[in-house]
Automatic annotation (TrEMBL):
Transmembrane segments: none
MF (Gene Ontology): DNA binding; transposase activity
Pfam families on file: Y1_Tnp
A GO biological-process term: DNA transposition
Origin species: Collinsella stercoris DSM 13279
PANTHER family from the UniProt entry: TRANSPOSASE IS200-LIKE DOMAIN-CONTAINING PROTEIN (PTHR34322:SF2), TRANSPOSASE, Y1_TNP DOMAIN-CONTAINING (PTHR34322)
Span of domain Transposase IS200-like: 20-134
Protein's name in the database: Transposase IS200-like domain-containing protein
Length: 260
């Protein structure tokens, strides 16, 4: 099974404070055709077992993880430049387990994984929040109640298998962890595995940038305010079609008041 990396990450609007050491990545593995990746608690546990095993073997340090039903989020530090090999071994081993134990055959994961290089403190913090907040954004449960993420490992770092010190150093210690996760001042972050923002993420970005109330009222705002809001959406990567969909404003007007 061949894997390759591609993608870019967006975190805004705050400027980076300093550049992190190179080698931090946000990674997403998706089920083939969005198929379910975990059919039992045993599947989740087996994936985690492989994740820890191959991360250690390839000297990859885990920063954060979240296992959703049809995709997986990871934040890692790869100083050994072994990311591709690690993800290949992980995906291959788990696919064998999944097919054998659940009576399936064929590909389990998409033919490639998506990765985003993390280049700043602000992007790092936003990525970790995004990963841990996945269950809540999917309306499953709160991040603290979801059992299949590294959220709890940050509450008990003494027994954690993830590298917690980087985050704690940036936010000012373990005691600020839960407040950090609920602090919206870290800006908007959407994982971009491709150059185009997905439609389901466009509405998330729009609401976080403008707020639900202002977004719904954008059509009736004075021209200058409306133009500013539209430009913010375009600058965030929304296409003309996506801006039209989330605002209800026609593409002609959007084109008139914005530039790509």
């Amino acid at each position: 099974m061949a894997y390759q990396e591609d993608g870019e990450g967006i975190a805004m609007p705050r400027k980076p404070r300093r550049l992190l050491d190179t080698g931090y990545y946000h990674i997403v593995l998706k089920g083939s055709g969005n198929q379910i990746l975990f059919e039992s608690e045993g599947d989740y546990r087996k994936f985690l077992s492989y994740l820890y095993e191959f991360a250690a073997r390839h000297k990859l340090q885990l920063i954060a993880w979240c296992l959703m039903s049809n995709h997986v989020h990871l934040v890692v530090l790869d100083t050994a430049q072994a990311l591709s090999s690690c993800i290949h071994d992980l995906a291959t081993a788990y696919a064998v387990h999944f097919n054998r134990c659940n009576g399936h055959s064929g590909p389990v994961f998409d033919g490639r994984f998506h990765s985003v290089l993390i280049e700043s403190d602000e992007q790092f913090l936003s990525a970790v929040r995004y990963v841990h907040d996945n269950p809540q954004r999917a309306s499953i449960c709160s991040a603290s109640d979801y059992p299949w993420s590294s959220y709890g490992e940050y509450l008990h770092p003494e027994s954690s298998q993830v590298k917690t010190d980087v985050l704690f150093d940036l936010i000012g210690g373990k005691e600020r962890y839960e407040a950090f996760l609920s602090d919206d001042s870290y800006g908007v972050y959407v994982f971009r595995g491709t150059s185009r923002l997905k439609d389901e993420d466009a509405i998330i970005v729009a609401k976080q940038l403008l707020g639900s109330d202002e977004l719904s009222k954008l059509r009736s705002l004075p021209t200058e305010q409306r133009a500013h809001g539209l430009q913010l959406l375009r600058d965030a990567g929304l296409t003309l079609k996506q801006v039209e969909r989330v605002t209800g404003i026609g593409r002609g007007i959007i084109s008139r008041y914005t530039h790509a």
